[in-house]
Specification:
Helices cover 77% and strands 3% of the residues. Helix 2 runs parallel beside helix 11, helix 4 runs antiparallel to helix 6 and helix 4 packs antiparallel against helix 10. The protein is mostly helical and 331 residues long.
Length: 331
């Protein structure tokens, strides 16, 4: 009896040990793929049995993101009633989300499908540059959209003169310029470092913090937080100040129905802002020494795949004009 009981207890433990051994061997095989000039994206390689499920999940989210954002762009472009500043910014946001997803997800899908997890040094820097540029552009554009809602709610009679087409184009152009300049400066500095200790990145793409851990220098740490303050805190401050004025204006509306009507015009944007900044703060606004690769990867999946996928639904399902334009576009 005791021998049967012991074997029954040992089986689950031995199975767990075998699974951990297989995963370790799989990671070691992936590490052996890399050369001196390549980086190794470990990503989800520690879970080889989950690769088909992850591939199907990421491919589904990628296709939904592409179709959803392209439909938003086409609907806004085809409907004359939506040629307003708010929808002009929304079309730009959808375009940025499309490019943002294309920077990350195709490489992840290829890595999972081929089990080849290497990326060249140049390819890694290029991916990091476009990732940071588009993420910063998303950040700046959300602040511009908050300013648009602030003017529309707090100064409705002067909205058309303040948010004129020329100013809209200027705001978007300035956002593109600032985001690319900031991303280029960080990428240029990163290209000067050598990665002699390790080339294995515990992430599914070339993100800033995992690379920072491989090439840690005090100069880059200071510069990174200076740019984080400029590119993250400043736009977030604009968003918070805009919504403080919006809430103050809404509270002065006498009827509950009027308050709901005014607030509904910025509810979608507020939802997107919460999703974006919630995950970004979870990943980037922490010391690099305490950075957790598992937490970073989960949060990165949210803001690189889930948030761009949800944005079209958030803006279309809560907006009657947007739904009407989509129905027209789909015939």
């Amino acid at each position: 009896m005791s021998s049967q009981g012991d074997s029954g207890i040992a089986n689950p433990i031995s199975f767990l040990e075998v699974s951990e051994t297989e995963a370790a061997q799989h990671v070691q095989e992936i590490r052996n793929q890399t050369s001196v000039s390549d980086f190794l994206l470990l990503g989800f390689s520690a879970h080889p049995g989950q690769q088909p499920l992850l591939f199907a999940l990421f491919l589904g989210m990628y296709l939904v993101t592409m179709v959803g954002n392209l439909l938003i762009i086409l609907a806004i472009g085809s409907d004359q009633h939506l040629h307003t500043p708010m929808y002009f910014f929304l079309a730009n946001l959808s375009f940025i989300d499309t490019c943002f997803t294309c920077t990350i997800v195709p490489k992840v899908l290829v890595n999972i499908l081929t089990q080849c997890h290497t990326i060249s040094h140049t390819g890694c820097l290029v991916q990091m540059y476009f990732f940071m540029a588009l993420a910063l552009l998303d950040d700046f554009l959300l602040a511009v959209m908050a300013y648009d809602r602030y003017v529309a709610i707090c100064f409705p009679l002067h909205y058309t003169t303040i948010v004129c087409p020329q100013r809209c184009l200027l705001l978007v152009s300035a956002s593109w310029l600032c985001s690319h300049l900031l991303a280029f400066s960080l990428t240029l500095l990163m290209s000067q470092f050598s990665f002699c200790a390790s080339h294995a990145i515990p992430h599914f793409f070339c993100d800033l913090l995992p690379l920072l851990k491989l090439a840690y220098t005090q100069i880059f740490q200071v510069m990174m937080f200076a740019e984080a303050a400029l590119s993250g805190v400043v736009p977030l401050t604009c968003v918070l100040v805009s919504y403080a004025h919006i809430i103050h204006t809404i509270l002065r509306v006498p009827s509950a129905r009027g308050k709901h009507k005014v607030f509904s015009t910025c509810g979608s944007h507020l939802t997107v802002v919460t999703l974006f900044y919630g995950t970004v703060f979870l990943v980037y606004f922490q010391p690099s020494a305490s950075y957790s690769s598992d937490t970073g990867m989960v949060a990165s999946v949210v803001y690189t795949m889930v948030t761009p996928m949800l944005n079209p639904f958030i803006y279309s399902l809560r907006n009657r004009d947007m739904k009407g334009a989509l129905w027209k576009l789909l015939g």
